[in-house]
Predict the structure.
Amino acid sequence: MQPLWTPTPERIAHSQLVDLMATVNRETGRAIGDYPSLHRFSVHEPERFWPILWHHAGLQGEMGERVLSSRAMPGSQFFPDGSLNLAENCLMRGDPSALAMIVYREHGKIEQLTRDALVQRVATLQNALIEAGIGSGDVVAGFLPNGAEAIIGALATLSLGAVWTSCSPDFGVEAVIDRFGQIKPKALLAVSQVLYGGTLRDVSTITLALLARIPSITTCFHVGQGAPITHVGCRVREIAELSVHDEPPTFVRVSTQHPAFILYSSGTTGAPKCIIHSHLGALLQVVKEHRYHVDLKPGDRLFFYTTCGWMMWNWLCLGLASEAALMIYDGSPFASGPETLWSLAAQDQWTVFGTSAKYLSALDKAGYRPATEDLSHLKAILSTGSPLAPATFEFVYRDIKADVLLGSISGGTDILSCFCLCCPILPVYSGQLQCAGLGLDVDVLDHEGTPVTATQGELVCRRPFPSMPLGFFNDADGHRYQAAYFQRFAGLWTHGDFAERTEEGGFIIHGRSDTTLNPGGVRIGTAEIYRALDDLDSIRDAVAIGLRRGDDEDIVLFVVLAEGDILTDAMERMLRDRIRHARSPRHVPKIIAQVADVPRTVSGKIAELAVRQMVHGEPIGNMDALANPDALAHFKNHPALAS
């Protein structure tokens, strides 16, 4: 296969990854000269690799005497005797006068902060949190849009050794309570109104419900405009009215294993799991990805389209630890048309543009060509959330920018980082994630646990890595944590992705393994079917499930068509032919049916499991985990399934 993009010798030479490689060679006497060799060193000699990376990245803190407490999973810890503070590493480095962030709303730029101004804002909120009785180990929650206040709230919380967690205002009240209600925050930062798609929405009733139903909240900090928030038994303070605290913030250096973030699983099969991530795990893993996989450098401008309810928000915030400036956008990515984000990227010279595969595909189907903007500063485009189709790879290089690192990345909330992602010194092949991350011993196993190449199987990690969760909230014996990741293959992290290792050394993600199709005993990833349809303008969305038929199952493909289109016999034949020729006869759906909408989780992922449960008349684990639960009604007793 010919690559779509190959880095120039100059770009390779100036990458931070090559500089890290040179440092490894100096300190170990090796002669490592390529990424695969560096990756092998990183997974086979973690006690030597991780201290070198810590020093090369300039992390602030104490490493302690040990690098790794054990090479067994679960239970192993990195730098278990060390101490650090994640917020200190984000704030107390680089030029104080350098740009820290630009904040945008749908109507344009609203705020710009230097690093020095950000530090002062964090100090002010930190002082208010101390007055509210917040200390090490307490939980502070944010019910906030993506903006400066959310980042300031997280950093002020972490600076004290307290724990930060957040949900986006597009979550329904029960979805938020399902999350915050489990972890019992002591303080809440919340809004009463949000703007999306040109519409100002009142969410004060949700904020009031949180205060009424989560009695652990003793202080609420109200952010932004909107109706005043009052609740008996809870002190409410306006963020905008806090007294400016002129002294710099203090930073409590905590154990490397001290909780920093609580993130949440999608919750489609029950109450969301509350996943606890440490200061060290989040910092070390994400700094590694930013600096050495994305080649993020001081002064770069990092954008990722995300909300505070998705792990990519945490990933974005940690760009401050690499001295990058954060480009923060809240609102519809199509607020003024498909050019909305690209006009901002050109105007303010963004260098890294992160988004979802669905967004890039939507641009292509809309016929928009971002290359018409001045994207001369753009050096990387990142995509996650779902597999990036080969047709979309080609769209990026044809219609956005030919000289750009396109990083399809895959990991998740569970690890607050990526198992497989991009590499600035490797070529990009259509449809493939370039490599496994440094320090991550990623493999693909068949159902018997045998490694396979060019064949689909379970994605696993064979050795410990820094961002393994500390565990789940309210799981004192670790039983749920063990069952979630280590039950399928003992001693290996099983991530739940159906994947394939390629001959070129990359990876293809075929979807979640818990929704893998299995007609005739042959396992098929749903993403393979979606890829075959991706460049069809007539298909707006699709979801594939397995319909049980005795001991076997049939593939059913539900499609959302362009407005006004009807699923005809001719269109069905065309879709089947396309899937047969692009994939195989086994991939061809037995049934194709039209629906008006496809349910997605609040983080934008297709809710295949919920559709399958609805079709089979089974209980839906948690409707509040869905952004559009009403869409499920289209699948109940669908006439196409009657035969």
